[in-house]
Amino acid sequence: MKKFSKSWLAALAIATVFGCQPKATETAEGTSADESAAAEVTESEQRPSPLIVEEGQIGDKAIKVHYGSPSVKGRVIWGDLVPYNIVWRTGANEASYVEIPQDISVEGNALAAGKYSLFTIPKETGAWTVIFNSDWNLEHGHFQYDDKKDVLRVEAMPIWEQTSTEQLTMKIESPGLVIRWDKLKLPISIQ
Q1: Cβ proximity of 48 and 73 under 8 Å
Q2: DSSP-assigned letter for residue 22
Q3: Can you give the pLDDT of all 191 residues of the chain as single tens digits?
Q4: CA 167 – CA 181 distance, rounded (Å)
Q5: Where is this region: Disordered (predicted)?
Q6: pTM for this structure?
């Protein structure tokens, strides 16, 4: 029995020593570069609301918007999944945000260059409130929203269309930033 125990302990010690040695292709974090890239692709593919980055020009001004893009999936969106009269992160997962490298005008109001989280307050009728907030890196969306950090609030009139857009989109097109989801089209004028 002692011979068996000593052999077993020796094998365990050897396995521990060799098992703890890093592989030649491993990074300091302990995973290979190929494994890390595969994990990022897999995470992106598995997200129900993929992260989208949209870039574009309005006149001579560059704008970039980052957002999580949820799908309708047969759900009632307005007034149910997205309640009226409550701040909405305008997307899914992390707060959506815009990058503006130069000063712009939004619905006729000045907005300085910078990064801003983008929120809206949907309304059953009438104009929606569009909010640009200085706290742009919010990983839990509207749960971390602080209205004291609002830089600009403007009103934008939604258009209710006959056709439905399954997956939320934010496009930089005339007249500025246009949000579409379900039967909503929300054009936000930018100059």
Answers
A1: no
A2: P
A3: 545 445 444 444 444 444 444 444 333 444 444 444 444 444 555 778 899 999 999 888 999 999 999 999 999 999 999 999 999 999 998 899 999 999 999 999 999 999 999 999 999 999 999 999 999 987 766 667 899 999 999 999 999 999 999 999 999 999 999 999 999 999 999 99
A4: 6
A5: 26-49
A6: 0.74
